What we know:
Nuclear Transport Factor 2, Chain: A, globular, 109 residues
Amino acid sequence: MTSAEPLPIPIAAALEAASAGNTEDFLAAFAPDGAVDDWGRIFRGHDAVREWSDAEFIGRQVTLRVTGTRTEGDTTTVSAEVGGNGFNGPSDFAFTVFDNHIALMRITG
Length: 109
């Protein structure tokens, strides 16, 4: 599943910011109307993404170790080993990037 292609810049920036606990840089990777789809719960816009992240992602001291990537069309899926004080274990994140910002981050597995 691992790709030799580097991750699109906004995806790499978001993953790095999340693991570093940097909410501002995490949000900066998203378009102003970008969204997180957390198993069907949609959080759209920076304020909603911040609230979600504070409660369930960066606020839980998430760490992400990328284990693989694949790109199909306009979607890049990142497989990662998730750590921190919330969910721990393998997970997949499907990102759609538009105009050099994340339009959607969907937790898919």
